[in-house]
Specification:
alpha/beta, 17% strand, seven-stranded mixed sheet, 6 helices, globular
Length: 211
């Protein structure tokens, strides 16, 4: 089994990374492969709502000036996905938001290949805005019918300069528990996949409120 974590921070080794490494250590202790993909420092354009991915059904975004299509396939083949971001003005960092909009729209437009994977969202924040950012990240996971991994509190860790997060004792514990809980869910999913059929996929009803 494998978990892919998306680091949405511009800083490769910042506090977002520190949180992911704690989770990753627990996953690896449970025999689960772990990989971090650093997205936040790339020039990732936003979704233009062109609908080409839905029309073509090729699991690709029409925009190819960045590695998004490569990352989509890495996430598709993973058993679990972690999406993480620092807090910018009480929200998800811009590059990460552009990445998420495109990736999850491609998945949803091509059969929702993230469905029933184990997912978790993680936030690094200096002071406030962590809960609203975590809520935004969780929207992507919930919309995709993913199984959310949780911890003993919100998946938020605090720090200002890179490395500060390791001093947040509660935050570090939250990440450790999240890693163990995610590993447990992944193992349950793996053990029951041949004995407990997943709910049948239902065609989505799209309702417009404009009459």
């Amino acid at each position: 089994m494998k978990v892919v974590a998306i680091n949405g921070s511009p800083h490769k080794d910042g506090n977002t990374y520190q949180a992911l490494r704690v989770i990753g250590t627990k996953l690896e202790e449970n025999g689960i492969e772990f990989e971090i993909i650093h997205v936040g420092h790339k020039a990732v354009r936003g979704c233009t709502g062109c609908g080409t991915c839905r029309k073509m059904q090729n699991e690709q975004c029409v925009h190819t000036t960045d590695p998004v299509n490569e990352w989509i396939q890495q996430m598709k083949t993973a058993d679990g996905i972690i999406i993480s971001s620092p807090v910018y003005y009480s929200g998800v960092a811009g590059t990460m938001k552009s990445f998420l909009d495109r990736v999850f729209y491609v998945s949803g437009s091509n059969g929702n290949f993230f469905r029933h994977k184990v997912g978790a969202a993680v936030v690094a924040v200096r002071r406030t805005g962590g809960s609203s950012t975590l809520d935004t990240l969780n929207h992507y996971l919930a919309y995709s019918e993913m199984m959310l991994a949780t911890s003993s509190y919100w998946n938020i860790i605090h720090g200002t300069t890179p490395g500060d997060a390791v001093q947040d004792a509660e935050g570090m514990q939250i990440m450790e528990i999240l890693g163990n809980n995610m590993a447990w869910q992944l193992k349950m999913r793996e053990m029951t996949k041949n004995t407990l059929p997943a709910p049948a996929k239902i065609q989505k009803v799209m309702t417009s409120f404009i009459r």
